[in-house]
């Protein structure tokens, strides 16, 4: 076979594989959205779920998902940022750094159900936090931290060494160079990684079944005292999220409209993850233009 013919065959094969992947994804998304969007309404998005009657919504579960996401990112982002800066800017290339990187890679490949069981034994049982928002947020931090750290490290690594040398030439210390030159240049990539990891956390279910619980007690949205058990901000209350709610309905739901609620909740989950991905792209472009004056 000539080089020109083999090139054409390889191109056709690659285009076929890419088309199949796109077709499968489009079919999956289309099925979920076509099946679920007709069930969406303001009442569905804001009313509480009903266990035995039709007409329930996903208001509490939707709030719990966003609340857990915010708590998780508040805990994990500073740790990931510090770890990424250390690994890329300060750590020497020796066996200790190699062990840390290997540990991060192993942790990032752990199944989420294993993280959930570890969180159950440590936070729920040993630390006596019970099935709570806090237990779920810490478990999701363990789940999210390796990927977020690698994302931050990769963003810093993409900045050319020329900028570090320019900072040193201006008499800046290493920390000043990192804080005033490297980090601002890496912010667009870091933000993109953060938003994408937020979408992954938002759709997680297995780790939360064992830590945040499978119940959603009635909340008083007029009570914002975080120490009151009925307050939406209480971090020690059980919190069934949207992904866990979908799993629960499909496994043991007995309400008459279980299929409709599951389809609507799945559509909301997919739409939220799509928004996270589109937001990551838009925010990355905007920050890149503003921080680098690119056109």
From TrEMBL:
It comes from the Bacteria. GO terms for cellular component: plasma membrane. Its main location: membrane. Signal peptide: none annotated. Residues 62-280 form the ABC transmembrane type-1 domain. GO terms for molecular function: phosphate transmembrane transporter activity. One of its GO terms (biological process) is phosphate ion transmembrane transport. PANTHER family: ABC TRANSPORTER PERMEASE PROTEIN YQGI-RELATED, PHOSPHATE TRANSPORT SYSTEM PERMEASE PROTEIN PSTA-RELATED. Belongs to the binding-protein-dependent transport system permease family. CysTW subfamily. This is Phosphate transport system permease protein PstA. It comes from Periweissella cryptocerci.
């Amino acid at each position: 076979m000539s080089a020109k013919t083999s090139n054409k065959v390889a191109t056709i094969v690659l285009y076929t594989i890419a088309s199949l992947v796109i077709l499968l994804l489009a079919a999956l998304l289309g099925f979920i959205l076509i099946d679920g969007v007709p069930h969406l309404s303001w009442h569905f998005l804001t009313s509480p779920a009903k266990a035995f009657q039709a007409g329930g919504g996903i208001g509490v579960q939707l709030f719990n998902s966003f609340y857990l996401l915010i708590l998780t990112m508040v805990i994990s982002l500073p740790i990931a940022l510090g770890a990424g800066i250390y690994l890329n800017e300060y750590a020497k290339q020796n066996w200790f750094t190699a062990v840390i990187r290997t540990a991060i890679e192993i942790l990032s490949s752990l199944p989420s159900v294993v993280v959930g069981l570890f969180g159950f034994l440590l936070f729920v049982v040993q630390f006596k936090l019970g099935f709570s928002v806090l237990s779920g947020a810490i478990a999701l931090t363990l789940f999210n931290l390796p990927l977020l750290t690698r994302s931050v490290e990769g963003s810093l690594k993409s900045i050319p060494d020329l900028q570090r040398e320019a900072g040193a030439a201006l008499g800046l210390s290493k920390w000043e160079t990192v804080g005033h030159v490297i980090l601002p240049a890496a912010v667009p990539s870091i933000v993109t990684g953060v938003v994408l990891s937020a979408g992954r956390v938002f759709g997680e279910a297995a780790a939360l079944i064992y830590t945040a619980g499978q119940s959603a007690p009635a909340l008083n949205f007029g009570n914002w005292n975080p120490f009151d058990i009925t307050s939406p901000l209480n971090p020690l209350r059980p919190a069934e999220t949207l992904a866990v709610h979908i799993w629960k309905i499909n496994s043991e739901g007995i309400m008459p409209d279980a299929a409709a609620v599951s389809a609507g909740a799945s559509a909301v989950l997919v739409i939220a993850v799509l928004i996270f991905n589109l937001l990551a792209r838009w925010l990355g472009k905007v920050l890149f233009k503003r921080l680098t004056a690119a056109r």
